[in-house]
Amino acid sequence: MALFGLLKSKEEKQAVAEARRVLNETGPKLVEADQPGQALAIAQSVSANASLEALPVKERTELTDRAFSTYWESLLADDILTSEEEEQFLKVSEALGLNIGDVDSRHPQLLSRLIVAKVNDGRLEEIDQPQIIRKRGEVVHLEVGAKLLKEVALREFRAGSQGLSFQVAKGVRYRVGAIRGHMVTVGTEMKVQDTGSLSVTSQRVAYLGSAKSSEILFTKLMGMEVFTDGIRLQASNRQNPLLFRFTQAVSGDAVAATINAAMQHSLE
């Protein structure tokens, strides 16, 4: 019985080693695939490999994610994604057992890279059922959860000199407080005014929140300041810029690229 257990353990170890080898080689193989359908065939072959069942779920997921990251980072290295490449990318993702939820949570940078790469290929998404009400002939290209921010001045009290006492009338004296001072601005902080969604359409950038709503037509947009997780928009008809922080895994670069492309299309 002990010998049987030892042999079984050895077989299990060999299966685990084989599964690791397969998954560790998957990323490079996907990158090297240069024929139509080859990457998909590799992904399907990996998924069908029975040795993968020998790995714990956590390790199998981690190694699959690593292989997938190697694949998409190579695919998007030039920041351009053609429709044919996108079609194959989706099929490979599905074959590896990844869905949209997995991509958003386990590959947070991917969505933004895909948006930029598609825009660079001259393609803009068209959302069929957007949250905002579209104007006649308007197309919604992007919607992302966002917080509307406001820059607030931080102030502090600076103490002054010792108070003085002086006579107001005979027998009556008035004493100024022993500690006097004044308020000074020492910096600023961002405070959330509202939470909602930011939409980029073929005509404007629109914010729809729970308490506030606003829009900037492309004809009024004068400048953009792009941040990793947000964007600041300046308009000719607004005294103060609008500042947004995104609540989804979409970068400021992706939103700015979509705005710029939509603006260019509106001028054609």
Descriptive notes:
The structure is a single chain. The protein contains seven helices and nine strands. Strand 4 (179-201) and strand 5 form a beta hairpin. It has two domains: 2-120, no CATH class; 140-153 and 189-267, PH-domain like (Roll), CATH 2.30.29. Strands 6-5-4-1-9-8-7 form a seven-stranded antiparallel β-sheet. It has a two-stranded antiparallel ribbon with strand order 2-3. The protein is elongated. The chain is of the alpha+beta class and 268 residues long.
Please write out the topology.
Elements: H1 2-32, H2 38-47, H3 57-75, H4 83-95, H5 100-106, H6 110-120, E1 140-162, E2 165-169, E3 172-175, E4 179-201, E5 204-209, E6 213-217, E7 221-227, E8 230-235, E9 242-246, H7 252-267
Helix pairs in contact: 1-2, 1-3, 2-4, 6-7
